[in-house]
Task: structure prediction
Amino acid sequence: SYDLRQPPSVSVSPGQTATITCSGDRLRGKFAFWYQQKAAQSPRLLIYQNNKRPSGIPERFSGSTSGSTATLTISGTQPTDEADYYCQAWDSSTKVFGGGTKVTVL
Amino acid sequence: QLQLQESGPGLMKPAETLSLSCTVSGGSISSSNYYWGWIRQSPGKGLEWIGSIFFNGNTYYNPSFPSRFSISLDTSKNQFSLKVTSVTAADTAVYYCVREVADPYGYYFDYWGQGTLVTVSS
Result:
């Protein structure tokens, strides 16, 4: 089991909005970080400091946090966004990941 | 552009000691701004943070990982390493080396190596 709970899968049509949640007590009062892992690739940082994107990450990716739940939103989902998405938080210098959400673009 | 590259054996036998190295290019591991860490991903599973090391050699480990796991630094080679003693089949995974950022908002991983698959099998 994972301290951070994510839905195992999310399906979305191209151009629509995909929403991925991440819940856990470790998120309360903290920011979540999000990573994208495409097939046969390393994960890459997608969102940091709650809603900042590293250089090269499209604006359609955004993050938010409310209470003990963080949300990653993909607006206008593209077929290239099909991937696994992981949230990450920290607590007492321990870093934990959610179980991951597979986003399928149908 | 910072790059991290893992190296190590792909195949191990149970009870052997695994040694993985991560060579950092495009930046110095002696920087006081970052930690350097290891994350693993077991087949078909999610990500697990193993531990990290600071430029001064201070280490921080995931309490879920036993003391068989240790991380060290070689600043002369701009490398850091992961050693796992007495490996078992459960240690079969892709191991990633990462750069860890610590800022007022938390700890996260902004650069990842390509990962190296380690298989433990007799």
